[in-house]
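Lecture 7 notes: from sequence to structure.

We start with a single chain of 488 residues. Read the sequence below before looking at the structure.
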Amino acid sequence: MANTDKLSLPLIEPNMTADVPRDMNALAEAVDAKVGVAGGLAVLGADGKVPTDQLNVKDPVDASTTVKGIVRLSADYKDQSTARVPHSRALFDMYSISLVDRGKLFQSNFNFALGIGVWRVDFASLNPATDNSPVGANPKGVLFVSSVNVTEGLALIQKYVDDSGGIYNRVRTVAGTWLSWDGLASKNYAQRNLRLERAVELGADVTGAGPAFFDFHTSGNVNDFDSRIIAEGGTSAAGNGKITLQAATTVLNGKVETSGQVWVSKKSAFGDNSGLSLPIGDSDTGLNWVQDGNIDFYSNGQIPVALNGGQFVFKNVAGGYENLSTAINDLKQSSVDKFTKIANAINGKGGSANSGMTGDQFAGAITNLPVKRFASGTFNGQNAQASSWGMSISMVVSVGGLSFTPSAVFIRVRLTESDGFRQVEGFAHTSTSGGDTIYGWRGNSIWVSPLRQQAGGFNATIEGSKIDAYAGGSPVSKIWAYEWFAYE
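Now the structure, written as tokens:
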């Protein structure tokens, strides 16, 4: 038949019993496959039409994996229909994109994106409360899923980079718990956070000994590191390694506890061993905790001071130890006693002072004392003799070169006969206000005139009377001058 869309069927009149030719049987089979007419023949009704109960025409159906049917082509490579397949243009679009686009295979919930690889995210909007997406993230972007070995097992890491430049990270622990998203809000890689559950181990799977370290870059300069934490050494027992902090300044906010030594300003030149609790610089200088309430302060292996039972003790010049508070109290009392004696001495000289005065006040009290300058000397027996019996005799004595001008002078004088027999001797006091007379036996006397002042010295007249002798005779008077004491 030239046109399969229009099928002409052989008609058989009612009650017709003619045999069907062999070629007609073949035609009937073809018709049956097309329109479902049993035996390939149709029997016309009285109206000349094929009855509907004899027309068993099948409706077209979509194909499936078990049923033949119609299969349609699609231009969307993300189409999830079971009855449509992407055509070659759709396949071209899929393989020409830079990242594998898996569409929405994790059902709009980031918690279900567990497959290792790259996911293209393309939603109208995100809702962190229901889809566990990063707060504030753009609904279009790329999700990277990877794994990391954290010794106990594998943990998953998700990194979501949205189309606006936002970067978000989070970790799914080996226990299956998702940690919170950490976003880089500035979008310029200024901060990266890694959060793991409980522990981070370095070097656990490395063969051989060697240091492990963390480097920190915080200055913005191109250098090896700004601060570093180094771990090294150790034994088969846990906790015997060494931690070194390399930084210009280390600030600890809060308590610092240690059950071992704390070495301050340690210098390798002095060695590593010290019996002190807190060695400073070398092994024999620092502090040593002895017992409760007892700390020794060491200096070059000696203990000059210590804390003993709440009291501060120190080594004295005799090599023994004294209680500092007792020594201070003794010193205070000694000072009070000394100041009392000084004040009494000042008051005894006509000044005004008390033991409670300050050093400056004591100095002022001493400066204001009514103190006179003093000098002494001798006339070395200067003498003069009368020319005859019954006459008096006088001479002038004089002193110069003093740093002051005397206002009072004591002079030791003597009156004798010419042969040296002594009649009168003593100290005569003379001043600017008057002279002095010394008397002896039978009214014999020596008179010293009032003091005559001169710059840096003085002079005075010494006069001896005539000598009245009991036994008579004619003795001649002679006067002498010896020591002198001059006062300002």
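The CA atoms of residues 13 and 48 lie 9 Å apart. Keep this in mind for problem set 3.
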